[in-house]
Amino acid sequence: MVKIVATSKSVANAQENFYNKNNKYIPPPQTFGNRLLGVMSWTMPLFVACSTFGSVNGGIFASSRLFFVGARQGQFPRAMALLSTGSLTPVPW
């Protein structure tokens, strides 16, 4: 019981650091961006969005290739491996 009380007290003390002078809550990444970048802190969410988009883009390219190779090796239905030799695009059977 003592550990729970001590842990909750330390969490409460840590959360006090994220309130500004008007007693308004500021999330930690926003605080970091404001302190580091100042006026340009609006760029932080923009960079996070670009990073997320890049990660999803890479995941889509990788997953489509995995399905194709799996079909070529017989682990997926053969129809997933059909490609046109001329344009290298999927071909319906």
The structure class reads mainly alpha
| General shape | rod-shaped
- The total tally of domains equals 1
pLDDT < 50 stretches: none
Biggest sheet layout: none
Order of SSEs, N→C?
HHH
State the helix count: 3
* Overall helicity: 55-70%
Mean of residue pLDDT values: 75
- Radius of gyration, CA atoms, in whole angstroms: 25 Å
Content of β-strand: under 5%
- The separation of the N and C termini measures 67 Å
- The count of DSSP E runs of length 2 or more, i.e. the number of strands, is 0
Structure description:
This protein is mostly helical. It has one domain (2-81). The protein has helices spanning 2-16, 28-37, 43-72. The termini are far apart. The model has no long low-confidence stretch (mean pLDDT 75).
Tell me briefly what this model is.
With 93 residues, the protein is mostly helical. It has three helices and no strands. The mean pLDDT is 75.
Topology (SSEs and partners):
Layout: H1 2-16, H2 28-37, H3 43-72
List keywords for this structure.
mainly alpha; rod-shaped; 93 residues; single chain
